[in-house]
Q: What sequence folds into this?
């Protein structure tokens, strides 16, 4: 039983080169990826590299004069922070200033325009039924909007409202249509579209009162609202940027409103009914690329259980109007602008939908991001954009690097003085750990937007001590075995299990502390915690895959195996006991005396 065990142990000891080759391949792969991606240096935070500071001013919502308050401002900061700093390590700072301003600090190397859109977009999403739709004045006559939505096999994959709408529901722009007849047609289309909604509104208003005068008043109010909306729709020119900026922006979710939307490079104007589904009903949103069709990048949404029911109900109602386009369409409205208006042929019960359009990958990912984290409780306008320099941070970084270099030098001097030849193992291990840390930090910049700030640099400096401590634990265990009278190679293999257990417990405690610190803190302190946790994990990797195998190889060399006084493993210098030797005892009482004098 013992012989096979020794054989397996010897086999494991004889192949430390595999572990060394594995970690060297990992370093080469990470370094190659770093150069291929073009990110040869870690991304720096705003305190080290400078960047852009954006001041956003909150605006009161229509009908909510007291919307700007501490609760809403803190909620807005939290949502903005999640949008631009989802993992807490991108170093983008979001904080309030005064009672109505929010300051967003974006480090250099980040797309400041994209970040500004991320934090400034209110992201109020509504699904509204389309009551009327046509190409806006100034748009190409042949342009037709197209969109796709899907939730189940019953959803129509694309729509072309302008091609299916009747002449009374869209302006063709042909030479035979005079301006006056076009305006009359527009007004008639809107009146017809609003008739059902006005009647329903009148019935709802009159249901609480049997008085004929109340019913008459409600009818008059609805008629006035329809006339006003009719005039807005007729006058709306969505090709005009000024009109687009205000169209439908102040409408409440329960209002019937006008809106603009750009589809296939042409602007269209819409009359939209009250919202039936909103952004709070969206459980998850993600950007996906349509590999099956020609839609390109799109945003795929998954609804909550309540949202899925609402979506099924509204699509079921719209499907009943399949012969009356565009009233079989619903407009997907984001911050007052129609981003898609697909047709519906049957009720969509799958609990999901897609927003498609002329999205680039960045636009789709940004839209999915803002939808995932919810809408802001307030609207914001950009008050100022300024450039931040990194003069002070650069000086602090210089001082921090000097402190790190001094600490590393002291560690090396200590290793040389107390462990002598063993420093030939410890120093390369430190260099391997540094190489892994540097390459991984460089690659994390473009992947999770990790930014190296001053606290993160401090975390990397602290990691030098953590890594050196692991080497010292291992070396001292080996020395303990040598003091017990064992030779070097058995001492290394017997010391490793005990050292390994101590190293894992120590690193687990460090990683746990880093994880707790990362969770309970915000801002720059998270950079320190993230770096500390990363370097702690790398310490385990380096000790297991580099330090231990390298020690096994060096134990076979005469310089170490013979216990040279400069090897750091000299038995005499360590006060080792003499090797234990077994003596053969007499087999029985017939054996002679052990002492020759007794013979």
A:
């Amino acid at each position: 039983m013992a012989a096979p065990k020794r054989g397996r142990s010897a086999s494991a000891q004889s192949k430390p080169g595999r572990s060394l080759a594995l970690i060297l391949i990992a370093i080469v792969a990470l370094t190659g990826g770093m150069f291929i991606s073009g990110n040869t240096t870690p991304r720096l935070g705003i305190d080290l590299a400078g960047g852009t500071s954006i001041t956003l001013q909150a605006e009161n919502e229509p009908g909510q004069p007291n919307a700007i308050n501490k609760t809403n401002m803190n909620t807005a900061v939290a949502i903005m922070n999640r949008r631009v700093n989802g993992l807490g390590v991108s170093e983008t700072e979001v904080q309030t200033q005064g009672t109505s301003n929010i300051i967003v600090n974006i480090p250099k190397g980040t797309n400041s325009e994209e970040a500004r859109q991320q934090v400034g977009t209110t992201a109020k999403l509504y699904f509204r039924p389309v009551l009327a739709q046509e190409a806006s004045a100034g748009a190409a006559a042949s342009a037709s909007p197209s969109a796709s939505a899907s939730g189940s096999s019953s959803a129509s994959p694309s729509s072309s409202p302008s091609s299916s709408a009747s002449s009374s529901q869209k302006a063709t722009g042909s030479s035979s249509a005079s301006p006056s007849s076009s305006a009359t047609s527009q007004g008639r289309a809107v009146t017809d579209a609003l008739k059902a909604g006005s009647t329903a509104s009148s019935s709802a208003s009159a249901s609480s009162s049997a008085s004929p005068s109340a019913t008459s008043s409600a009818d008059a109010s609805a008629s006035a609202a329809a006339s006003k909306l009719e005039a807005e729709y007729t006058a709306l020119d969505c090709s005009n940027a000024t009109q687009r900026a205000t169209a439908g922006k102040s409408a409440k979710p329960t209002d019937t409103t006008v809106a603009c939307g750009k589809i296939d490079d042409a602007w269209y104007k819409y009359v939209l009914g009250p919202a039936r589904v909103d952004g709070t009903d969206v459980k998850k949103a993600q950007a996906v690329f349509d590999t099956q069709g020609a839609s390109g990048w799109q945003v795929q949404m998954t609804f909550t259980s309540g949202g899925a029911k609402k979506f099924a109900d509204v699509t079921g109602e719209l499907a009943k109007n399949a012969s009356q386009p565009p009233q079989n369409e619903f407009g997907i409205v984001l911050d007052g602008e129609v981003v898609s208006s697909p047709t519906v042929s049957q009720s969509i019960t799958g609990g999901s939908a897609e927003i498609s359009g002329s999205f680039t990958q960045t636009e789709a990912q940004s839209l999915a991001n803002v939808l995932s984290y919810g809408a802001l409780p307030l609207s914001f306008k950009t008050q100022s954009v300024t450039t931040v320099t990194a003069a002070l941070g650069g000086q602090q970084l210089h001082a921090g690097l000097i402190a790190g270099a001094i600490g590393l030098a002291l560690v090396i001097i200590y290793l040389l003085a107390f462990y002598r030849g063993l420093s030939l193992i410890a120093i390369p291990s430190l260099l391997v750990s540094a190489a892994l840390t540097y390459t991984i930090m460089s690659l994390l910049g473009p992947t999770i937007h990790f930014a190296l700030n001053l606290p993160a640099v401090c975390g990397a400096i602290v990691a030098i001590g953590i890594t050196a401590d692991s080497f010292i634990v291992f070396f001292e265990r080996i020395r303990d075995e040598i003091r017990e009278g064992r030779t070097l190679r058995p001492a290394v293999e017997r010391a490793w299990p005990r050292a390994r257990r101590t190293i894992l417990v120590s690193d687990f405690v460090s990683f746990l502390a880093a994880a707790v610190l990362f969770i309970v803190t915000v801002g720059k302190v998270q950079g320190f915690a993230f770096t500390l946790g990363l370097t702690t994990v790398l310490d385990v990797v380096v000790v297991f895959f580099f330090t231990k195998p390298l020690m096994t190889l060096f134990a076979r060399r005469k310089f170490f195996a013979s216990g040279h006084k400069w090897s750091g493993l000299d038995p005499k210098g360590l006060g080792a006991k003499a090797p234990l030797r077994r003596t053969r005892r007499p087999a029985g009482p017939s054996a002679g005396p052990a002492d020759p004098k007794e013979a």
